[in-house]
């Protein structure tokens, strides 16, 4: 996460159904290990000596970056237990003679051997944007809320790769597997990330060897049974006095259009597919927000630059790409009203907007008036919202909780899951290893297995859909356990908008709508500069 020592309460974030973990009681911080250094500001007394092959701010090879990233994995360096409040937790680095902040952007700063610990917002100042297909070991995928280090392609054709991250108080630095067809990465929409390359990286010697190929998956979403709701201690979320969102900011009204294509084709159109009865799109370069008005009206530009967009029956919301503050669309092009500050993520139900504080220490609900927010829960890793209500995951255990409509009222309904989705009045979850899809019974912590391995799941009025982790093809759940029907091939991402299913093509150049019959899809184009 990016850090701002002067901001400790503000909500900061992006849209997208991202999860939030809700600790039952005040979540105990991960004990800071002996090697950690405590400091009250961004500067720390240097420790160790600067090594000849690790000069801060100088050239660094891809092999060095991966070796340094792996070093924190091997040492099990914990995530900073202090969030955005001083004192911070820092980890000394003998090679550079510096100490680096123990969070996602501090981790990248360490691996890149920077002179100081930057944030997700300042890392672009020392890097350049690249295409995701051009990623090499040591590059990063950076979003306003999180950043990961690209470890290498496992199978580029199928979109699988390894990555390193500092992500949560619930576990130390880790190496994980990502998939471009899943639509999500490390709990955030894949669309919110930008591939970036350090200005002083060099390709020689040869980069680190990619991880071995992922195991084969079944052709349809069926696999060995595994529940996403294992037994774990029951805890209740902790609440605190309500607080308001941060100070005012200028609405994102700059006029811009999507970047022109490098080839004759139009630029990629969607960064996010969201909404209840309308389809909204964010230009590939985040320069403008668009609304789909049907075949007769086509795409209409309704707003300027945005970090992310998120929509539901309550309306359309967007974050300012410069400061992360959140705005509500007033229904007229270029008419937006600021309703809050930055957050780690936001989620919308039919009548409520929720946000997770930047340090994941509390869940808030927008009152619907001005910039006033009410605190309704304690620490959380991810939040999910839909017609069925609000859900959050515990940052320590991964357990899933349901919000009971009153501040502090949360009930545990299951254990950890790889991902969750709400389709109508039903809640579904992927097992932690993504080996099976489960449906919550609606009572206690009882879940039943309804499908096998899946890369990602998507839910909405049209039902539940899942992608095959091996081929990327998308399947529709027939509301009977183990009954799935293929409805299309692979796509960059999918979204269930009202009673319709939409998909973004693998090359990100066009949006398609499923006809509802077999595997037939209709192309509806993409927003383009006029």
Could you write a compact summary of the structure shown?
5% of the residues lie in helices and 33% in strands. It is mainly beta.
Account of the 3D structure:
- The protein is mostly beta strands.
- Helix content is about 5%, strand content about 35%.
- It has 3 helices and 40 strands.
- A 6-stranded antiparallel β-sheet has the order 5-12-6-7-8-9, with helices on one face.
- A hairpin with a 6-residue loop joins strand 22 (about 355) and strand 23 (about 365).
- The longest helix is centred in the N-terminal third of the chain and has 14 residues, at about 60-75.
Write the layout of secondary structure elements.
Layout lengths: L36 E3 L20 E2 H14 L12 E6 L4 E4 L2 H8 L15 E3 L10 E3 L4 E9 L4 E6 L8 E6 L4 E2 L2 E2 L4 E5 L2 E2 L76 E4 L6 E4 L1 H4 L1 E5 L5 E4 L2 E5 L6 E4 L6 E5 L4 E4 L4 E4 L6 E4 L6 E5 L4 E5 L2 E5 L6 E4 L6 E5 L4 E5 L2 E5 L6 E4 L6 E5 L5 E4 L2 E5 L6 E4 L6 E5 L4 E5 L2 E5 L6 E4 L6 E5 L5
Parallel strand pairs: 2-13
Antiparallel strand pairs: 1-3, 3-4, 5-12, 6-7, 6-12, 7-8, 8-9, 10-11, 14-15, 15-16, 17-18, 18-19, 19-20, 21-22, 22-23, 23-24, 25-26, 26-27, 27-28, 29-30, 30-31, 31-32, 33-34, 34-35, 35-36, 37-38, 38-39, 39-40
Helix pairs in contact: 1-2
């Amino acid at each position: 996460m990016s850090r701002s020592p002067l901001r400790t309460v503000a909500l900061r974030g992006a849209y997208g159904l991202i999860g939030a973990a809700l600790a039952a009681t005040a979540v105990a911080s991960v004990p800071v290990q002996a090697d950690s250094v405590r400091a009250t500001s961004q500067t720390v007394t240097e420790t160790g000596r600067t090594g000849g092959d690790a000069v801060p701010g100088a050239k660094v090879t891809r092999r060095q970056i991966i070796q340094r990233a792996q070093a924190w994995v091997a040492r099990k360096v914990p995530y900073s237990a202090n969030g955005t409040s001083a004192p911070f937790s820092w980890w000394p680095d003998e090679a550079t003679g510096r100490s680096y902040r123990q969070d996602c952007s501090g981790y990248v700063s360490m691996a890149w051997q920077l002179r100081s610990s930057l944030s997700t917002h300042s890392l672009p100042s020392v890097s350049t944007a690249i295409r995701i297909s051009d990623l090499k070991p040591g590059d990063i995928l950076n979003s306003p809320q999180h950043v990961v280090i690209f470890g290498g392609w496992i199978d580029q054709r199928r979109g699988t790769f390894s990555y390193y991250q500092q992500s949560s108080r619930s576990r130390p630095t880790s190496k994980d597997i990502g998939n471009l067809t899943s639509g999500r990465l490390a709990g955030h929409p894949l669309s919110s990330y930008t591939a970036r390359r350090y200005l002083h990286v060099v390709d020689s010697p040869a980069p680190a060897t990619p991880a071995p190929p992922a195991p084969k998956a079944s052709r349809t979403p069926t696999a060995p049974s595994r529940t996403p709701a294992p037994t774990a201690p029951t805890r209740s979320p902790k609440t605190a006095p309500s607080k308001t969102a941060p100070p005012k900011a200028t609405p994102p009204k700059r006029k811009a259009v999507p970047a022109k294509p490098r080839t004759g084709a139009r630029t990629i159109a969607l960064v996010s597919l969201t909404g209840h009865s309308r389809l909204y799109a964010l230009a590939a370069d985040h320069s403008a927000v668009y609304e789909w008005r049907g075949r007769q009206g086509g795409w209409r530009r309704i707003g300027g630059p945005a970090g992310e967009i998120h929509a539901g029956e309550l309306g359309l919301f967007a974050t300012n790409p410069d400061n992360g503050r959140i705005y509500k669309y007033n229904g007229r092009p270029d008419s937006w009203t600021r309703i809050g500050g930055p957050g780690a993520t936001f989620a919308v139900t039919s009548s409520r907007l929720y946000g997770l504080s930047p340090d994941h220490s509390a869940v808030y609900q927008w009152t619907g008036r001005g910039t006033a927010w009410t605190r309704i829960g304690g620490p959380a890793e991810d939040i999910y919202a839909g017609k069925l209500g609000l859900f959050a995951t515990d940052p320590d255990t991964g357990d899933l909780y349901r919000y009971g409509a009153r501040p502090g009222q949360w009930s545990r309904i299951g254990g950890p899951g790889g991902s969750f989705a709400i389709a109508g009045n039903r809640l579904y979850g992927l097992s932690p290893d993504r080996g099976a899809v489960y449906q919550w019974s609606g009572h206690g912590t009882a879940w039943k297995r309804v499908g096998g391995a899946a890369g990602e799941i998507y839910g909405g009025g049209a039902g539940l859909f899942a992608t095959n982790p091996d081929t990327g093809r998308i399947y529709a759940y027939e509301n009977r356990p183990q009954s799935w029907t293929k409805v299309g091939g692979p796509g960059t991402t999918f979204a269930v908008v009202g009673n319709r299913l939409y998909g973004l093509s693998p090359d990100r150049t066009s949006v398609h709508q499923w006809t509802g019959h077999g595997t037939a899809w209709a192309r509806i184009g993409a927003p383009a500069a006029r």
